[in-house]
Write a structure and sequence with these properties.
elongated, about 35% helix, RNA-binding, alpha+beta, 5-stranded mixed barrel, 16 helices, about 525 residues
RNA sequence: GGGCCGUUAGCUCAGUUGGCAGAGCAGGAGACUUUUAAUCUCAAGGUCCAGGGUUCGAUUCCCUGACGGCCCA
């Protein structure tokens, strides 16, 4: 059993203590990372300079009174050479070391007979004894911890990797790399927006009313105020309040929470960038989107063409523009203003299954788009000019449209490989029309559309104070990271993805039967 | 929500046409002072995901469930 392995490690830990060794000391001063030591290897080896490194013991090849080991730190791995001649009595602790212990070493660099760059250890300290064994993954070639190495006994159990990401990160260099690149994407987004004068802000994640997207929220409860709060599904309505407040360019990189299913492109909490630019419109947002996608691709890969799932994706601006009218004609053979019956007929014609005829028109259109149009949008392509009833926060298209059905709004979504990556509008800033649109939403809601917006009076009050013409843009950051790291599941770009609870424990159920104090 | 597949030692996996299971790695003991999937010798390690059914007997067959993966809505 695993307990036996843990017990053996605890016994070693006790033996260390008997020898006067503290297995959990407070600090260890390092002079280099493994990568830095290897980068400056020739110099350091020639000068015989003392190098101090610390990391996790990943491999051990002991040969009697000497031996080799590899440690892994955040920069990579390096080989160690330990011998009794150098360590004296301290060589005894080597026997008490297990794989995945954290150690600190001091010594000099040299090259072995077989040419491997190695640290000859003169002092060795235990920094943290690990009592739980990790999966052992061996690598052949190029030392140990490199891309080209052939891998043995790789851990393929996705469940374990997601649930115990700490283990996944230790044993998979490529997973560490994905999350480094994720950090680069976030830093790159901030850099691009900061350079253009956008101000990074933070708005409430706990909201008395939710809005800014069509989605169902998570509901929670604030004990002190004894009132219901929602986790945000979007930060749009707060960022627009800030535009009213006079910050002409704002952005937020925020966790949003949507109470919906999980799949390869959906996690119940996810990261979105939203930015708003006063005196701009959706044309400006298209240009900004192109700059962001191309700029990040350049920052991460050096060019604007990236590989995804074995195919080229060309993120070189400008991206194609396609109106929704044209897209529906082209791919569904239907007019955007078609009746419900015509939409249903088109769904049927294109083999869309399980269509509920009683759904509202917007839902039917949405389904037709998702099933029939979007799969064709390999992109990158801006799908433009949505029907007004699908976009309660977007401004009517200039110079056309008119009232009621048939009206279009200035809105686009960016599609790449059939997946939505961005959503943007020329923001509606006419307070009377905004009120009317939200009231329509409220009516749809009352009629059973549980993704329709509630009316947010405070938001309307802000817009009544005067909101400048504004362009707004939202980008799904997780999907963007997937695109730029060639990962095919959102779970591979979220450090701790949502999972069903492990084991049979029934924790985390609905507390307290619905109403009242959900605590205790 | 539906379909298919998976769950066996700490890890990667075999296997049992139904008779309580094996290998490699890791771990233990021993040998080995420039190895690298180090090597060699020996010993040990299991609720075969859970529950029910069929059966003299189930890890194996059937049903239900849990969790996960892939595909579809």
């Amino acid at each position: 059993m695993q307990d036996r392995l843990i017990q053996q490690r605890i016994e070693k830990l006790e033996r260390m203590r008997e020898q006067g060794i503290d297995p959990y000391p407070h600090t260890f001063a390092v002079t280099h990372t493994a990568a830095a030591a290897l980068a400056d290897f020739e110099e350091l080896a020639a000068s015989g300079e003392t190098v101090r490194l610390a990391g996790r013991l990943m491999a051990k090849r002991i040969q009697g009174k000497a031996g080799f080991a590899n440690i892994l730190d955040s920069s990579g791995s390096i080989q160690l050479y330990v011998r009794k001649d150098n360590l004296g009595d301290a060589f005894g602790v080597v026997k008490l070391l297990d794989l995945s212990d954290i150690i600190g070493v001091e010594g000099t660099l040299f090259r072995t007979r077989t040419g491997h760059q190695t640290l000859e250890v003169r002092r060795l300290e235990v920094l943290a004894k690990a009592i739980r064994p990790m999966p052992v993954v061996k690598r052949k070639g190029m030392g140990a911890e490199t891309d080209q190495a052939e891998v043995f006994d790789e851990v393929t159990d996705k469940e374990m990797r997601y649930r115990r990401r700490y283990v996944d990160l230790v044993i998979h260099p490529e997973v560490r790399e994905v999350f480094r690149r994720r950090a680069q994407v976030l830093a790159g987004l901030r850099r691009i927006l900061d350079e253009q004068g956008f101000l990074e802000v933070e708005t409430p994640a706990l909201q008395p009313l939710y809005g800014g997207a069509a989605a169902r929220p998570f509901v929670t409860h604030h004990n002190a105020l004894n009132r219901r709060l929602f986790l945000r599904i979007a930060d749009e309505l707060y960022l627009k309040r800030l535009i009213v407040g006079g910050f002409d360019r704002v952005y937020e990189i925020a966790k949003n929470f949507r109470n919906e299913g999980m799949d390869r492109t959906h996690n119940p909490e996810f990261t979105a960038l939203e930015c708003y630019q006063a005196y701009g419109d959706y044309e400006d947002m298209m240009r900004l989107t192109e700059e962001i996608f191309a700029g990040l691709a350049r920052a991460l890969t050096g060019g604007t063409r990236v590989r995804y799932a074995g195919e080229d994706v060309d993120l070189t601006p400008p991206f194609e523009r396609l109106t929704m009218d044209a897209a529906l004609q082209r791919y569904a053979g239907i007019d955007l203003d078609a009746s419900n019956a015509e939409i249903l007929a088109a769904c049927d014609r294109h083999g869309v299954e399980s269509v509920d005829e009683d759904e509202p028109r917007t839902r039917l259109l949405d389904m037709l788009l998702r099933e029939v149009v979007e799969p064709h949008l390999s992109g990158p392509v801006f799908l433009l000019d949505y029907p007004v009833e699908m976009s309660p926060l977007a401004k009517r298209k200039r110079g056309g449209g008119g009232e009621g059905r048939g009206a279009r709004v200035e809105r686009f979504e960016l599609f790449i490989r059939g997946t939505e990556f961005a959503n943007a509008f020329s923001e509606l800033n006419d307070p009377l029309e905004q009120r009317a649109r939200l009231e329509e939403q409220a009516a749809a809601r009352a009629a059973g559309d549980d993704e329709a917006h509630p009316v947010d009076e405070d938001f309307l009050r802000a817009v009544e104070h005067g909101m400048p013409p504004t362009g707004g843009l939202g980008i799904g950051v997780d999907r963007l990271v997937m695109l730029l790291t060639d990962q095919h599941s959102i779970r591979d770009v979220v450090l701790f993805p949502a999972m069903r609870p492990e084991g049979g424990e029934v924790e985390g159920e609905e507390p307290g039967g619905g109403q009242g104090d959900p605590c205790h």
